[in-house]
Amino acid sequence: MSETELAVVILAAGKGTRMKSALHKVLHPLGGRPMLHHLMDTLEALTPSRRVIVVGAGKEQVEKSVGNDAEIVVQEPQHGTGHAVQVTSDQLRGFSGNVLVLYGDVPMLSVATLQDLINVRQGTARPAVVVLGFEPEDTKSYGRLELDEQGSLTAIVEHKDASEAQRAITLCNSGIMAVDGSVMFDLLDQLQNNNAAGEFYLTDIVAIAKAQGLDCAVSVASEAEVIGINSRSELAEAEALFQAAKRQKFMDDGVTLLDPSSVYFSYDTIIGTDVTVEPNVIFAPNVVVEDNVTIKGFCHFEGATIRNGATVGPYARLRPMADIGTGAKIGNFVEVKKSTIEASAKVSHLSYIGDAIIGAKANIGAGTITCNYDGYNKSLTEIGKGAFIGSNTALVAPVKIGEGAIVGAGSVVTRGVSGDALVVTRAKQKEIGGWAATFRKNQEKK
Ligand code: UD1
Ligand code: CA
């Protein structure tokens, strides 16, 4: 095993009671993805050879969510953060690389910050423990980092156990640390729980290491990166930071946001350049927007692709597998699901298009509905290139409209229509001359 090999331990056994949720805290979404997955995705850049997640209640949920991407260890009951790392003994005792200890509810860390932490661990001083510190605006009940005159870390004091003088220290413990795997369990084995919480504090390994003559160090991160999420309001704060970063990134990359704070992105949103997004638009997961697209206000997208030069909205809803072609137009109050709208086709007003293929340059009139569902099965509607579908048409799938065909307004189309044909299914118009005038006269006599 190489000294630089990396194991990560993600602590997630805390009760998470403040979340008041049946869903495990670390599975609550941030930017449309469980916070645990944000963290695990960040870790991939560090190519860890071992990934261990420590859970208490909700093991099945976490297991289901991470699949084979990590080993799950149960800590039951929970006797503190030190105890939480101790329970990985079966997995990691004997591992002599770096062990990165993380919290499942601290998901906003950057790769650079974690890489710095590991670099300090690998540095010439070879500290046994490197703690990620930060200077919060409000020191709350964070553990405080005590340094000696040389600036090396001597101890971490928990707020509960701290003196007034120690509480005045502004450098706090984020909880994240990199530990020399070859000494980690020796240090953990010496932990005691004679403290205010009656717990085995992981933080105590610093003083234990120092007492053995091992060096300990601090690496410093910004508060925004190390914020923990313990409640719905902290989740909302983290979401706000996440969204602010996404908005900035998209603007930096050539996207115009008319009112950035009203536009919400997902972790995986992809947007090209020279795209304009008007206010109040939500990008749920799995949306791709190519270049030169205009998105008007009040739209909701999920699992959709919008191709070069298309215009969408206002008030459009694109659901999974909606593929809006080059230069196509999706207008107001239009819902599209699992449908391909080919180049320059138009669905301008008040339509539902589901399980359909709309050919290039076809024009779908106002109020057109694809009747794709009979209560049991979903069926396909195919509309040929250049076809014209009159307003208020119901297309009862499965049905195929040929290229260049015209469907008269108000039709209910149940059978295929040949290319270039006209089809009208509504009742013939009937006129009775003077009827209205006679009707009014009779009414007024009463
Ligand atoms: C811990 C640190 C404190 C630091 C703070 C940062 C200790 C003793 N204290 O305090 O110095 O400033 O984090 O937020 O480490 N967990 C388990 N099993 C347990 C207990 C906790 O897995 O038995 C997990 C929790 O799920 C959580 C993390 O460890 O992800 C931190 O636990 P928490 O109770 O929030 O620690 P604090 O007391 O806030
Ligand atoms: Ca906490």
Structural features, described:
The chain folds into two domains: 6-226, Alpha-Beta Complex (Spore Coat Polysaccharide Biosynthesis Protein SpsA, Chain A), CATH 3.90.550; 232-423, Hexapeptide repeat proteins (UDP N-Acetylglucosamine Acyltransferase, domain 1, 3 Solenoid), CATH 2.160.10.10. Helix content is 22%, strand content 29%. The protein contains eleven helices and 36 strands. Bound molecules: uridine-diphosphate-N-acetylglucosamine and calcium ion. The site of calcium ion has 2 residues, from loops.
Question: Any key phrases for this structure?
Answer:
about 450 residues, alpha/beta, UDP N-Acetylglucosamine Acyltransferase, domain 1, 2 domains, 12-stranded parallel β-sheet, 10-stranded parallel β-sheet, 11 helices, about 20% helix, binds uridine-diphosphate-N-acetylglucosamine, binds calcium ion
Task: Report the biggest beta sheet as strand number plus sense, adding barrel if it closes.
Answer: 12 strands, parallel
Count of spatially separate domains = 2
Q: N-to-C terminal Cα separation, in Å?
A: 103 Å
Query: Are there runs of 5+ residues with pLDDT below 50, and where?
Result: none
CATH arch. level architecture of the largest domain = Alpha-Beta Complex
**Structural class per helix/strand content?**
alpha/beta
- Note the beta-strand portion: 25-35%
How many DSSP H or I helices? 11
**What is Rg?**
31 Å
Number of strands: 36
Q: Any idea of the CATH topology of the largest domain?
A: Spore Coat Polysaccharide Biosynthesis Protein SpsA, Chain A
Helical content class: 10-25%
Bound ligands = uridine-diphosphate-N-acetylglucosamine, calcium ion
The CATH superfamily label of the largest domain reads Spore Coat Polysaccharide Biosynthesis Protein SpsA, Chain A
Average pLDDT score:
97
Highest-level CATH class of the largest domain: Alpha Beta
